[in-house]
Amino acid sequence: MSLFSDLRRLYRTERYLVEDPHTEIVAQVLRNSDALTLAWLKWLKVTSLDQPQVEITTQERFEILPGHSSASRPDITIRLNAGGNTELIFIESKVPSTQGEDQLQRYAEHLASEYKNKGLSKASLVFITRDYEAAEKPVVENSPFQPEFIPTRWFEFYRYLKVHLNGDGLATQLKLFMEENRMSLGNQFRSTDLVALENFVGAKALMDETLDGEVLQAASRIIGKVSFSKVLEELREDPRYVIHHGNWKGDFDVLIGYWLSHENPDLPVWVGVTIYSNPWSPCRMEVIEAFRVWVAGEGFQWKADGLDQEKKWTTLHHGKALQGLMGEPDHICAIRNHFLALLKDIQAFRRAFPKLPWPSPPEANG
């Protein structure tokens, strides 16, 4: 896990925006390497200057122009100076949010104003996104100058980042962070991708079979109503295929299923159960104490993380690599029995610590 993903645990989930820290990290990595900055900008055809002075700021404020409802703060602003030429570049990033109303139009008009009033030689607007987002080139009315508009994707920047790491620890952590947040997409299908694609429907059916039926009923009886409706949404946002019950505050979320890796197909698929506890939960100390007692006692095969880190998410988890369950002739039966055994542990854990914020009372026959 990257340092930046680790730091992510310090934030409330509902308040954490990936693009905010990502912007600051990218800006600093660019400041650390003019070679990376210029290689990327030249590939985008934003500049042709050689060895310019480079100035990079984030969230720089540009005052309200006539007809605008607010000032503008591009995510990253780059100024290039060489041989009496000054070029201004606004970079607006979306990970995973989408463009605001008239946002790109305002930026284009600011660039046109700066070009006219500051004697710039060139001005450009780069719109960079993790996911594809349609964006038309903004047109500045009543202006002979129109800023260049370059839409691009973060996975394209990632390719240049890999080439220019040069021992920069911050750049290395940024690379890992981008890999963990789906910003490192390649431009070629690997043989493993083709195999996965050809077999996805069948693999999904097998996972569904192991999670549905007996497992879903047992989970609903022991934990409370468990949702099967967001498995694909979970898979899109996080490398996991899970059924889930949470109270939507993150106080006490129980996830059951498969944990995968988006980036490294060689990493084993982990199959098990994880309980997550929010560091800002009002019952935080009670949850941590319960996790400690359980791991030290009856649940010694379970593991807990984050117990001594006040502002990190705490987890209690147990499972095994999928390969470890494939020695049986009936894989579905083996995996289903694995889940059911873990749910019996959860049932025992609930009985041992009934005052934790369990989602709902178990059924009378639970």
Describe the structure.
This protein has helices spanning 3-8, 19-32, 34-43, 103-118, 154-163, 169-180, 191-211, 214-222, 231-237, 284-296, 331-352; strands spanning 53-58, 76-82, 85-94, 122-129, 148-153, 240-245, 253-259, 270-277, 303-305, 314-321. The chain is of the alpha+beta class and 366 residues long. The strands form two sheets. It has a five-stranded mixed beta sheet with strand order 1-2-3-4-5, with helices on both faces. Strand 2 (76-82) and strand 3 (85-94) form a beta hairpin.
Low-confidence stretches: 11-16
Tally of helical runs? 11
N-to-C SSE series?
A: HHHEEEHEEHHHHHEEEHEEH
Total DSSP E strands? 10
Largest sheet: 5 strands, mixed
Give the spatial strand order of the biggest sheet: 1-2-3-4-5
First and last CA, distance: 38 Å
Structural class: alpha+beta
Mean pLDDT over the full residue set? 87
Kindly summarize this structure in a few lines.
With 366 residues, this protein is α+β, with helices and mostly antiparallel strands. It has helices at residues 3-8, 19-32, 34-43, 103-118, 154-163, 169-180, 191-211, 214-222, 231-237, 284-296, 331-352; strands at 53-58, 76-82, 85-94, 122-129, 148-153, 240-245, 253-259, 270-277, 303-305, 314-321. The protein contains eleven helices and ten strands.
